[in-house]
From TrEMBL:
Taxonomic lineage: Bacteria, Bacillati, Actinomycetota, Actinomycetes, Kitasatosporales
Keywords per UniProt: Transferase
InterPro entries found in the cross-reference section: EryCIII-like_C, Glycosyltransferase_28, UDP_glucos_trans
Protein name according to UniProt: Glycosyltransferase
Signal peptide, first to last residue: none
Regions crossing the membrane: none
A biological process from GO: antibiotic biosynthetic process
Pfam families: EryCIII-like_C
GO molecular function, one term: hexosyltransferase activity
Amino-acid biosynthesis as UniProt keyword: no
Organism: Streptomyces doudnae
Source organism superkingdom: Bacteria
Amino acid sequence: MVVSPPFLSHARPLSVLAGALRTAGAEVHYACAPAFASLAREAGVGFVPLAVTRNANTGVAESTRQDAAEAARLRAFLAATREGAVAALLAQARHRRADLLADPEGVLEALRAVDRRLRPDWYVVDQLNHSVTLALHCLGLRWATLCPGHPDQLPSAPGAYFGLPSAWPDALRPGPDRLAGLRAAVRRDDEELTARFAAFAARHAPGRPAPGRAFALGSAHAVVHPYPALPWRPTPAEGPRRLFAGHLAAPPEPLDARWDERVRRLRAHGGRLVLVAFGTFLSARDDVLRTVVRGLVEGTGDVSVVVAAGDRVAALADLAGERVVVARSVPQTALLEHVDAMAHHGGGNSFTECLRAGVPALVLPFSSDQFAVARDAERSGAGVVLDPNAVTVSAVPAALARATADAGRFAGLTREVRERGPGWAAARLTAAMGSPGRDGGVDPGRPGR
């Protein structure tokens, strides 16, 4: 049973992993909100409707149907990104307190019912599905953790906290006072959620071990990282198997006729092609999209651009022309096979998809783990990092020149990412989880796990 939160950037990789587990010989069911049933069909697995949070994102966050409170939170978050990195992270910390354990009793009962009906041997759960992880712990069920994005999203050291970037790119290092305030906020979140986990487990599973530090509660058996095994990452002395799969993307499909024609036309008017995409939430920052596109087109004579504008197509329509295509959404993995560079927001999927395609990047991180991902892109030579709130039209061409000067410098990392992927992850995950059986075997959740 693969359980996903209702966010497309998480749901799609989990569905690809579900399909790979099916190919490896498992009977697989994919559980997510009803709007994501098509992903189960694409993966060739069973579907179980399961709501695990009030929030959602089916592809473009602003146009996803959400209640008024969730829509207001999204607007507040986007406003905070305009103030800078720490403001965005603090806004996420405030919102996190209201959402991390949304309806834990309902999730527990829903999982109990599903488990009684289907009797899975083990589960795969997204690390950000905190209510699901807690329910699995309370029910004594066997699970593997998928840690989306940067590996430090699952903190393993006493001084590490969810919501506090483990590393910062050179262009966005906050001052010590700002960092101290952020650390205090995320530490408070850690303590509050840990207390809520303990109280919930004491009520609903008094015979089970205490879950321990909430944000660090993961599988005792295996953690899948759709991320490369970068040489500077620390190796934990103990704990579950860490499976660095490189990526969890389906093989890129050929461009359809419409996009193939667009690419040929853009190439005819500009020899190089750059994809600009900030993901499903941050496409709302059309001011930064505009600056980057203008810098690419006005500052160079040989660059054409495809920009994924989400709900801001109308706001950016004036940029469209012989060298610019403005689209609501784009076939990103397919386009990466045809572009010379990409400008993205530091999302884990975009980072690893660029690595797999061997495409250098301009990285403009706004929030979450994007700062740590951006630092890895910078350190590996796979990207040049710009501050999205300080970038200027004139700075973009020079950044592109630096990013594309020697794309071969991260060729070894590209080979590693290509050699792994969903099939690699499925085979090793199956081996790590052991023989079929419902023996529990869930980690008691001591700090550091």
